[in-house]
Amino acid sequence: MTTHRAYSSGERQFIRFCLHHGLVSPDTPLLPSSEATLIHFVTHLSNTVSYGTIKVYLAAVKNLHTEFGFPLDFNSMPLLYKTLQGIKCFQGVSKRARYPITITVLQQIYSKLQPFHSQAVNSSMLWAAFTLAFFGFLQSSEFTCNGKFDPHTHLSRSDIIFNPNIFNLHFCEVTIKKSKTDPFHETAKLTRARSNSNICTITTLQDYLLQTHGQSTSQSLFKFTNGRNLTRASLTNNLRALLHICGLDSANFTSRSFCIGAATTAGAAGLPDWLIKVLGRWKSNAYQTYIKNSKEAILQVP
Predict the structure, then answer these.
(1) What is the mean pLDDT of residues 130-141?
(2) What CATH number is associated with residue 46?
């Protein structure tokens, strides 16, 4: 369901609710709504829809207020907040399991893609994106382009710097221009060393960039040969297709599986907490929610 359709549905639900319960009269206009009305509304919804849908419908009500010039500040409604928390606890919020991409899974993908033995640029591009996402602990928004490309915010070819150069490299620096943990776009630099592994992200990036050396450095880093940028959707779709070929259940793998897998691998390998936080650029202990401590995940660490 698109945001527009969800908002339209939420607005209709709210208006229908107010009319049915006699909350609208010549002396009591529909807008602006009181906190009591909103509490009544969300309590009514909790009998038929999920907590997540209630939040979407509340956003729709806020949008309706904004359209008619009535700013609605939920932060000034503590009783509404407590009611929502109660609904959340009562219903329980189920989260879809998200499986980690581990070293073993990467090796399986590599065996199917064979990027270093292929002239298929798209295979090299996907493999470079996969390995950078994993070893860079990246969120999809940090290396995909989900709208019109903007060189000031999206990852460009010029953001990859090889040292001392692309032909004789020892390490690589990657400039991340924006992320969810960096709302002010202060940028971050990732430094990763070269290794002899076939899943080395530095060698992978080198191979991909040399194959596409004629492209402008100001272009999006990850592009398909048809000119389309790598988006979160195309990243996930290609990842799942490859995992399916590998014989894995791909449904619970998402673009975030790379970051989850990186944290899981680092934790299982015994890296100290402070180093995991540095590698993932976490300022809090939020990374701990990413670490999957199952026996299977730990055994996948070489």
Answers:
(1) 94
(2) 1.10.150
